[in-house]
Automatic annotation (TrEMBL):
InterPro entries: GLR_AS, Glutathione_S-Trfase, Glutathione_S-Trfase_N, Thioredoxin-like_sf. Pfam families: GST_N_3. Residues 143-225, 262-342 form the GST N-terminal domain. It comes from Psophocarpus tetragonolobus. CDD domains: GST_N_2GST_N. One of its GO terms (cellular component) is chloroplast. Residues 41-74 are annotated as: Disordered. This is GST N-terminal domain-containing protein. Residues 41-63 have a biased composition (Low complexity).
Amino acid sequence: MAMTGALSLSQFPLCGSVSLPKRSLPRRSFCIRAMSEVSSTSVSTQEEPKSEASSTSASSVTITPPPNFKPPEPKRFEIRPGQTNEVLGALLPLLFRFATGVFCSGYSFSIVSKDEIPPDQYALEINGITVKETVKLGPRPEKPIELYEFESCPFCRKVREIVAILDLDVLFYPCPRNGPNFRQKVLEMGGKLQFPYMVDPNTGVSMYESDDIIRYLVDKYGDGNVPLALSLGFLTTLTAGLGMLSRIGKGTTYTPAKFPPKPLKLWAYEGSPFCKLVREVLVELELPHLLVSCARGSPKRNILYQKTGTFQAPFLEDPNTGIEMFESAEIVQYLRATYALQ
């Protein structure tokens, strides 16, 4: 006997079949600046961007982890004491955006017997129930998409959501206010100080305008359909902006920091409040980072599982120090201690 059910989320139908197994400086007011996206899209062939610092030379600093630093053991679904309010605040965008960015495109699940999943394969387990997840993804780019943006921008969030849905890996170049490195680079490449700005090294295409970037990505690396939650115009931008009220000012303004010789690597996805807390600090410190997208259903969850013996996001790899670690609160502490200039 089988039971089937369907739940429609914002970005795609979420279908499940259940087969019974055999056994900036903070502002006091908030507004959405639609003016940041008023100009037309600029599409051109650009030389591949390089992660070079204009003010703090990567070769002039030494990157070392904090003394006697030891990565913490991963703890599933555990909130560190004192972190509760931050996590709840980071959850607000998820509520306003109806979980957009939590699931990959074409996500579906089925409840199966634990014996159907090989022991070396990742599977979601809840209270002894084994859930098998599948997705339908489009063509994969050979090189990561490059995005110049910052965490607290609602237009940038829209693009990050489609990145999670399409399961794309992205090389992020953070552009916080007063940042000395990448804001000027965007101006030089595109002619406007406007965000987000995308460069696709696979095609040579570069462009401004969040809606145009979303359309380009779904046409090139998806099924050609823009998810409903990202196709509502001003309402999409409004809900993205309202969701940031609880974390207003976070991930906005530059904190003086050492510039890393190599980009960091973060396994994360847009819908996770824990990942958001880490991303805010990466942006404030203007640390370029390769984001390995791993929303629900992503096959990269299994890659991380095989690499570490568990899956949990965020997971940070710092090639500049050799540190690899889970746990968002400790990652934030590590980033500040390692890169922030005292």
